[in-house]
């Protein structure tokens, strides 16, 4: 089957779907599935905009609300993960995944689903070591800290994914797995993004948690976004035994979703021709969620996941065959995910803007139903209970730290003691987020909805590449070609030629050497966003 993969969407759903329709008209290529690697921006109304960690001038309504309201429907099944520029209050309603609109499915903090027999997994957010070991304690209305920490990856999600034993076909993360740049055309990457050099040379670019998952899961494909640059790599994994067959991962990072940007890729994926066309639960993943339910933490307490180190009575939470069979029996062997999308917030009305709309903490009926069906903890319900118990500090956290039983420990050091949030490399595609000073008062920030009628994008496209299943990339040492040659060696075919004139990059200040005239960027990966002036 044909799978379309998109980079950072930034709310431009009309643009994505128009591009797919153009692809079908011009080349008779119709994808069966669309995957989006984060920064989806499922913004329903002005309150959602307040929960998106970007300066107020970049808070535009875009077009998702039309799909949420039912005015439009996604023409192709769309599955996405969260990034670091999201309506976090909306996605938080669905920690285990669910429908954000008809035909548009969010994978949750971490998740695995099936479509036509293809196993698709993903993890939302970006890595920050100072929040990695905490629980999911945040809830709206967010403050200057929690509006950012809400989208930081937590160790419990990585731990759950590491319990998977069966092969994964496709995996998505927003930020890149650390070190993946050593398996592609690193020279060309640094030519396009020279400001990555410091982090590449020090091997601190990307997520160490994602790198750990890449080594463990060894999926056939791994897709990422975040850094707003197209990059392909091919990673041959080491085998653990002579009996184990060699495995390799084809990695691809996508650009952001804007005209004249190479943001969309089409690949051919082997599938089960006898499988149905519905999105399905993955029985092994459900069994893992049930097994790890006791590890759920909604406090700011830091603790590591169970390990075989003598401190834990249990450390293996992988799903047994009996546990998987039990899930199948619970579902009567019908794994189809119910189409139970429900409106949980008022939809934006361009004729009646409500700039002072405040975000509220909502428990989504989809999550309630999912947790009741499988006996899981509703994270948002647990947070609400903690709020009702009252901490007296106005924070969504428990007054007293939960006792850590034999399943976890708060005293162990973090498995990751490094963080790239203090690096000062400068990316002209980024928006600066000053962690200490904040962007603005979140309670009074203004919103700036985009015009009700977005621009027409059907005139010129250089956004689509078609990549066959035989995608392969040689190593950097053997490869000095430019980016177009890289994609040619990967079996890609460009549908439309790029504009003959390159657009100059506008920097947010600084000299010709890229030295910024503003404060040191404390959270570079977290601050990446589309500098819209660049593409106007």
Automatic annotation (TrEMBL):
Main location: nucleus
Subcellular location: Nucleus
Segments for region (Disordered): 386-536
Entry protein name: DBR1 enzyme
Keywords in alphabetical order: Hydrolase, Iron, Manganese, Metal-binding, mRNA processing, Nucleus, Zinc
Biased composition (Acidic residues): 396-405, 431-442
CDD domains from the UniProt entry: MPP_Dbr1_N
Keyword Ligase tagged: no
Key word Zinc present: yes
Organism for this UniProt entry: Dasyornis broadbenti
SUPFAM superfamilies (alphabetical): Metallo-dependent phosphatases
Pfam annotation, one family: DBR1
GO cellular component: nucleus
GO terms, biological process: mRNA splicing, via spliceosome
Names of required cofactors: Fe(2+); Zn(2+); Mn(2+)
Gene giving rise to this polypeptide: Dbr1
Family statement drawn from the similarity comment of this UniProt entry: Belongs to the lariat debranching enzyme family.
Sequence ranges of Basic and acidic residues compositional bias: 386-395, 485-510
